[in-house]
Design a protein that fits this description.
By secondary structure, this protein is mostly helical. The chain has a single domain, classed as Hypothetical protein af1432 (Orthogonal Bundle). Helix content is 64%, strand content 0%. The chain is built from eleven helices and no strands. The mean pLDDT is 87.
């Protein structure tokens, strides 16, 4: 009887462990499913907001796809560079690529007669256009305040939106930052954004050939752009061209 009782107890313990193990497996599967679902929701929301900005400026075409790919390419090439290795780990690069499409979200606050003007802007109009970087950062900051815990990709998105028009030697906007005071994320987008603007057709200008755009980027080395980021651009120039052609707007 004692032996039977012990066997019965062992069987009950095993059964309980099996039930617990199955529950843990189900719980892990549910957590994984929800993480994937939340991740997809986040990506779709980002893309929707980015496309909202694009609808205000229909000429931008696949700009957000190209700049996102350029930024990822630059970050990957600089990942082991002594100046950037402490920042550009795999997680940062993924968050960077995720947040990059929001860099021009502030353009939703720019009047149509300025944003879609078929010609050069007047000084007063340009002053209004430049506010898009501040407007974008402020919009993202308001979104941050509405959530219970900070999201790293929103912090990067805010950096990029506010400071991707700063210049390495100063003189950019909105805050006139210079050198390493400009966040890495914004320095990367600065080059990606300018290169894409150069090779893209606008009402007031034709698309520039890739080689000419490359020369202008090089001319901005140490002035407009971080010198090491320009060097990474040159080393990966063929990949930049491939990205531009993959997401082209029927201009090249």
């Amino acid at each position: 009887a004692v032996v039977l009782a012990r066997v019965r107890n062992q069987l009950e313990v095993k059964r309980a462990r099996d039930v617990l193990r199955n529950q843990n497996v189900l719980l892990e599967a549910e957590v994984s499913r929800r993480m994937v679902e939340n991740d997809l929701t986040q990506l779709v929301t980002i893309r929707a907001l980015a496309h909202l900005a694009e609808t205000r400026d229909p000429e931008t075409g696949n700009h957000i796809l190209r700049t996102q790919a350029y930024v990822r390419l630059l970050a990957t090439r600089l990942q082991h560079h002594p100046r950037f290795s402490a920042v550009l780990d795999d997680r940062y690069i993924e968050l960077l690529a995720r947040s990059a499409p929001l860099h021009d979200i502030g353009k939703v606050g720019i009047p149509d007669h300025i944003l879609q003007k078929p010609g050069r802007l007047t000084p007063d109009e340009w002053a209004i256009m430049m506010t898009h970087s501040r407007l974008g950062a402020e919009a993202i900051e308001l979104a941050e305040q509405d959530i219970e815990q900070p999201l790293p990709f929103l912090a990067l998105a805010k950096e990029i939106a506010r400071w991707h028009h700063e210049r390495w030697e100063g003189g950019g906007y909105p805050d006139g930052l210079k050198g390493d005071d400009i966040p890495v994320s914004a320095r990367l987008m600065a080059l990606a954004d300018v290169f894409d603007a150069l090779i893209t057709q606008r009402v007031y200008k034709p698309a520039m050939p890739f080689s000419d755009a490359c020369e202008l980027i090089v001319a901005g080395r140490g002035a407009h752009f971080d010198p090491d980021i320009v060097d990474a651009f040159l080393a990966g120039f063929d990949d930049f061209v491939a990205i531009a052609r993959r997401y082209h707007d029927d201009q090249h």
